[in-house]
Known about the structure:
The structure is a single chain. The protein has helices at 63-71, 111-130, 194-205, 217-236, 238-245, 251-257, 267-274, 289-296, 317-336, 355-364; strands at residues 8-9, 15-16, 24-26, 33-35, 83-86, 92-97, 133-139, 155-163, 210-214, 248-250, 262-264, 306-312, 340-343, 373-381, 399-400. It is an alpha+beta fold. The protein has a domain at 52-171 and 389-400: 3-Layer(aba) Sandwich (NADH Oxidase). Strands 7-8-6-5-15 form a five-stranded mixed β-sheet, with helices on one face. The protein is globular. The relative contact order is 0.21.
Amino acid sequence: xxxxxCVEASADNSVSASPSRRSFIRLAGGGVVMAALPLAGCSTTxxxxxxxxxxxxxxxxxxxxxxxxxxxxxxxxxxxxxxIADLKREGEITLICDGDRLLPETDPYGRQILIGCxxxxxxxxxxxxxxxxxxxxxxxxxxxxxxxxxxAGRVVARLKIERDTAVAKDPLFAQIRRRHTHKGAYDNAxxxxxxAWKALEMAATERGLQAGAVTEAAAMAQVRRITRxxxxxxxxxxxxxLESARLMRIGPDEISKNRDGxxxxxxxVRVMAxxxxxxxxxVPVRGSSNYKQTMDRWAAHExxxxxxxxxxxxxxxxxxxxxxRAYVRAHLxxxxxxxxxxxxxxxxxxxxxxxxxxxxxxxxxxxxxxxxTVQMLVRVGYGAAGTGPSPRRxxxxxxxx
Length: 401
């Protein structure tokens, strides 16, 4: 999910100042100008410990920990990593939704959190196959949470692991550590081939879901308007904006301490925060400079070759988990093809204020008046610059044994 910021997010998830503010900062109230020099030793590279999880574990690693080491690289909302792995049963992983890592304001029913759990499961299953193990996935063995209930502490799935050297290895396994969410600008002039769109759609239909693409210019313009309006709704609604603000991690110390949430390593935001000029808890108000700067930052998210969506005819908790499994496979296929993807979550969220945009999106996709749920809306294209991994917690922090 894209965070609401008053600074520019670059392709590698770092943050920099806009050109008009890169050379100097005018302090409010006194007309004082100070040079915006980088902090001593300032780097936009994440601390090594924060991204160490992206290094491949050794083949000697216990199979369950090997699976977890790959599962935790799954895309998930706000990088909350809402996973607890209970290893008390021999030969099994019980995946529990961490109730301390939910997003109750923007994701009031935990639908997106469960999509992140589904992505985790898919990568864990792929990792097991790579080591000659078959996994039986039992979703919600204790029963699904209610439709309007947050899944805090609920068992999402039980993964039963069996040695089976005949199990087929997944060709997408090699993409797990290459897959990163590119949040920067994409090349508008470069089209994604039709066969690539078809490959993305197949990732959903293989799990009984529906998928499609928006590539026609007029329809893309409508999606851009809808996503922009839904982003605006999220940032001007205090409770939803502050949910993101509380998860901002500014600079290497905060990121090293909290390897989740919205990580900001750009030198400008760090300088501004250090002198009290960037208040992460200031809710943007229409007409304010903060509002304008925040909305300006959305421009990069209106670039790309088109939009990919996943939908379902029902919205059971099992379907939500399957949507995550489908999405991560689509992203892995895109990675193999050299294509970038970036989920735009705001327009498909369930908090009350964003319902007009959600309804507009369903109408555009021909789903108005149906029981269809749009599970994912994703920007697709070719990033103008490279991107890298986002912080992840240690495997040990997930485990209950």
